[in-house]
């Protein structure tokens, strides 16, 4: 410890003697450590955050495995019949619960006359995300409510199910943290529910953001064979003591095979996946690959920063050759020298880490302010926690080793005899230092090129996706989603009347060109269903054609600007009394009908909850992207809203001017028809699409920032190396100029030195970047990258920046005064021999 204290005191004194050097090294390391710690705060929040409850690793989540390939095909919900069968047949779970996490309810203000004075006042009607769960859901997770109680057995039966548990956020925001709310009633979907509990503030499962929970009511209809097609439940279960996850997976594989054998029509090819709760939450959120890419990127930035600081330490060690030689001559061993220089690197890294934490705090605040583009992201607590602090400390220690190990080992091999002689006779003493610094700078250039190519590929790929032709016109569209409650709209007729009345009012609004309603807005992910085509052989359930299914009103295609290619679209006459008709897109004709004439052909859609009926194709429309972030086209079938109304849909208004100006009129029109029905997500279509892909700009901005920082650091490294080299070779350059070398000759020599380093680094980075397109396509589903121009533009840009960094010290070298750098004797000899024939060789060498 005494030796360590001595080394620390000496290191601090040496660093204080060179404040400029110390400041440059500390700031460089602080930037590298800060970007790593800031990105790691996202890793800590998304991947390392422990789910609430006791032993969450012992909680398993069971999901379905779709036989059709697709994004996260093994994380689909489970059907209610499979929940009942697997709950009773498994031998690995102590308790099994189910949850439907995708429901929506309306929270309104209208009290029941019988409960006047007892109903909580909650403001304007609001559409909220909710979850319907079995009574033992919170018991399985082992998270009791903060206030009140959990669901009781039997409260999942019709008539006893009007109880609700609120999230802590909703309790604070809408009810002012009123503890007396327990036992009072609120209005959900126009019915009175008794508040029985409030969950803790930290109860938040990644990706699931319900504002309240109600009992999951499952009836006899949910246990029929037809109910196997409705997959809407995730199973949460606690493993029995001593049972492993592998045993649970083996058992549920067997149970899935049993379901396939019993119900081949709906379960053919489907399987079951079992994951621990933490693993499932991270996997289903789909952010692991993006965070891995970001951490790799900032890791490279840190390596470049460390290489720069190592170069500074090498230059400083070269200037301390005599000091180190004296220490060795006085008895200091090689290990002692290495330890001292490592201690100096440690002090630098800890100072950089301290400053980096300040930068990290600002960076986390910036991320938090920009990560509000959807509810699931906003709910993740991003903060400077202990994980981030420990990571910053570990990175600082790693930086100390990366920065100081090479200079320390190089300095420990100092030749005592050579270093103690006159400096003018030891012009080549720093050659090993120069080679090492050259290697470091070449590595920096390689990493910078690698990052710039990778960032360029991602930016180009996402830019093409964001600016692709979606197949419709999103401009001048105002949208709003509606969910009709079953208590007031319990049949097709009432749902159709509501849509008809609202559309009639909306058409009268000045500035509205067209009004439509649709079960799914364009490019927002409509559901897929299987189908049969009349007069074609019937295929097994797992081999049937699938198609996107959208229910629309008559003006939908005009409002969205979707081109009609053949036939006609819907009219008001295509109602419940008319023969069933559908409109298909061009991809449906190509893929499912093999480009045959579609008009007049009949198809039957397998829609859960709807009676299967044959429908005639009356028209073909242009392709519309199923998702705004996908480049492929899917088959799509459009049904008439008047022939199959749906309770959850969106209004779409086409405006002749700014659509946002119509938001108030839209709300008023809906309120005139039903004052207790809330609207959700009232926004323009471009804003909705931006919200849907809201993470892309932030993701690309961060990647661009990191790649630019890497390029700047690499340029600084080149500049530092060349400037140091020019300073060390001033004596040599003076001799060359005395022997006849001109200023352009010296400048070309310096530029050639920078060109060699840049070319070597660029070549290495080019080779490393070649497989990046395939790597990204494997990491990100649906992303197809092909931009060969980047492999030409980026190396040229890297070399141009490197040459610019080399030019500045090169120009300084041309201003060396040989008369001031050489002794009179050497200058006299050089002047006398310029014209001598024997000097030709020396002059050629000098040039």
General description of the model:
- The chain is of the alpha+beta class.
- Strands 3-4-9-6-8-7 form a six-stranded mixed beta barrel. Strands 14-15-20-17-19-18 form a six-stranded mixed barrel.
- The longest helix is centred in the middle third of the chain and has 37 residues, at 334-370.
- Residues 110-117, 422-429 and 825-843 have low confidence and may be disordered.
The main β sheet shows up as: 6 strands, mixed, barrel
| Helicity range | 40-55%
Q: Low-confidence stretches at least 5 residues in length (pLDDT < 50)?
A: 110-117, 422-429, 825-843
Which quaternary structure do these chains form? single chain
Q: Whole-number average pLDDT? A: 84
- Order of adjacent strands in the largest pleated sheet: 3-4-9-6-8-7
Strand-residue fraction? 15-25%
Structural classification: alpha+beta
Summed up:
This protein is 49% helix and 16% strand. It has 847 residues and is α+β, with helices and mostly antiparallel strands.
Present the secondary structure layout.
Elements: H1 2-17, H2 19-46, E1 59-65, E2 78-79, H3 80-89, E3 93-108, E4 126-133, H4 137-141, E5 147-148, E6 163-166, H5 168-175, E7 185-188, E8 191-198, E9 212-215, E10 231-239, H6 245-262, H7 264-267, E11 271-276, H8 277-285, H9 288-319, H10 321-329, H11 334-370, H12 375-378, H13 386-412, H14 416-420, H15 431-466, E12 477-483, H16 492-506, E13 512-518, E14 528-533, E15 545-552, H17 556-560, E16 564-567, E17 581-585, H18 586-591, E18 602-606, E19 614-621, E20 636-640, E21 648-655, H19 663-673, E22 680-684, H20 685-692, H21 695-728, H22 730-738, H23 743-769, H24 772-779, H25 790-813, H26 818-821, H27 824-833, H28 840-846
């Amino acid at each position: 410890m005494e030796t360590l204290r001595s080394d620390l005191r000496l290191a601090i004194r040496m660093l204080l003697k060179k404040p400029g050097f110390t400041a440059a090294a500390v700031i460089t390391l602080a930037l590298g450590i800060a970007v790593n710690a800031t990105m790691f705060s996202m890793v800590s929040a998304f991947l390392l955050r422990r789910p609430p409850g006791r032993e969450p690793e012992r909680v398993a989540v069971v999901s379905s495995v779709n036989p059709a390939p697709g994004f996260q095909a093994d994380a689909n919900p489970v059907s209610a019949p499979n929940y009942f069968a697997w709950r009773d047949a498994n031998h690995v779970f102590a308790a099994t619960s189910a949850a439907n996490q995708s429901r929506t309810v309306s929270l309104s203000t209208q009290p029941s006359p019988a409960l006047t004075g007892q109903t909580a006042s909650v403001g304007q009607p609001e559409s909220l995300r909710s979850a319907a769960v079995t009574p033992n859901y919170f018991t399985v997770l082992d998270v009791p409510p903060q206030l009140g109680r959990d669901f009781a057995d039997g409260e999942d039966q019709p008539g006893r199910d009007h109880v609700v548990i609120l999230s802590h956020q909703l309790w604070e925001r809408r009810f002012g943290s009123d503890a007396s709310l327990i036992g009072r009633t609120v209005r959900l979907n126009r019915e009175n529910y008794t508040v029985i509990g409030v969950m803790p503030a930290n109860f938040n499962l990644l990706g699931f953001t319900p504002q309240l929970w109600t009992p999951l009511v499952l009836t006899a209809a949910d246990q029929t064979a037809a109910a196997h097609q409705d997959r809407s439940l995730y199973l949460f279960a606690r493993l029995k003591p001593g049972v492993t996850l592998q045993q649970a997976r083996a058992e549920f594989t067997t149970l899935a095979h049993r379901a396939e054998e019993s119900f081949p029509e709906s379960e053919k090819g489907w399987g079951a996946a079992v994951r621990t709760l933490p693993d499932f939450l991270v996997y289903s959120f789909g952010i692991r690959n993006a965070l891995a890419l970001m951490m790799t990127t900032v890791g490279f930035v840190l390596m470049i920063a460390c290489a720069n600081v190592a170069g500074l330490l090498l230059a400083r060690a070269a200037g301390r050759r005599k000091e180190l030689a004296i220490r060795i001559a006085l008895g200091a061993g090689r290990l002692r020298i290495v330890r001292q220089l490592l201690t100096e690197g440690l002090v630098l890294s800890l100072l950089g880490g301290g400053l980096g934490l300040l930068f990290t705090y600002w960076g986390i605040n910036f991320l938090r302010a920009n990560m509000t583009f959807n509810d699931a992201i906003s709910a993740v607590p991003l903060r400077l926690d202990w994980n981030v602090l420990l990571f910053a400390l570990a990175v600082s220690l790693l930086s100390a080793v990366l920065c100081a190990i090479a200079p320390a080992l190089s300095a420990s091999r100092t030749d005592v005899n050579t270093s103690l002689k006159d400096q003018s006779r030891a012009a080549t003493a720093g050659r090993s230092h120069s080679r090492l610094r050259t290697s470091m700078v070449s590595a920096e250039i390689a990493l910078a090129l690698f990052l710039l190519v990778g960032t360029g590929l991602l930016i180009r790929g996402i830019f093409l996706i964001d600016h692709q032709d979606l197949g419709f016109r999103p401009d001048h569209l105002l949208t709003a989603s509606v969910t009709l409650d079953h208590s007031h709209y319990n049949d097709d007729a009432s749902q159709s009347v509501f849509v008809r009345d609202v559309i009639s009012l909306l058409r009268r609004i000045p500035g509205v060109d067209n009004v439509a309603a649709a079960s799914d807005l364009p490019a927002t992910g409509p559901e897929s269903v299987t189908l049969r085509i009349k007069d074609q052989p019937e295929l097994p359930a797992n081999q049937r054609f699938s198609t996107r299914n959208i229910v629309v009103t008559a003006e939908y295609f005009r409002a969205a600007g979707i081109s009609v290619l053949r036939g006609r679209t819907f009219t008001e006459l295509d109602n419940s009394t008319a023969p069933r008709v559908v409109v298909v897109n061009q991809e449906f004709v190509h893929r499912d009908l093999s480009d045959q004439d579609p008009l007049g052909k009949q198809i039957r859609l397998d829609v859960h909850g709807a009676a299967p009926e044959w429908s005639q194709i009356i028209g073909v429309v242009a392709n519309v992207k199923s998702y705004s972030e996908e480049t492929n086209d899917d088959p799509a079938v459009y049904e008439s809203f008047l022939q199959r109304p749906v309770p959850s849909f969106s209004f779409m208004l086409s405006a002749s001017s700014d659509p946002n100006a119509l938001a108030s009129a839209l709300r008023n029109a809906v309120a005139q028809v039903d004052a207790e029905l809330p609207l959700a997500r009232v926004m323009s279509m471009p804003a909705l699409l931006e919200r849907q892909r809201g993470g892309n700009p932030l993701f690309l901005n961060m990647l661009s920032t990191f790649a630019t920082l890497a390029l700047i650091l690499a340029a600084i490294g080149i500049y530092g190396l060349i400037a140091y080299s020019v300073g060390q070779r001033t004596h040599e350059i003076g001799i060359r100029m005395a022997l006849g070398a001109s200023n352009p000759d010296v400048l070309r020599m310096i530029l050639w030195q920078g060109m060699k380093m840049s070319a070597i680094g660029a070549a290495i980075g080019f080779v490393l970047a070649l497989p990046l397109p395939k790597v990204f396509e494997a990491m990100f589903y649906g992303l197809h990258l092909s931009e060969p121009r980047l492999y030409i533009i980026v190396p040229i840009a890297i070399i141009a920046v490197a040459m610019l960094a080399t030019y500045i010290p090169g120009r300084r070298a041309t201003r060396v005064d040989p008369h001031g750098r050489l002794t009179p004797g050497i200058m006299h000899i050089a002047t006398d021999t310029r014209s001598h024939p024997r000097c030709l060789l020396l002059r050629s060498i000098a040039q």
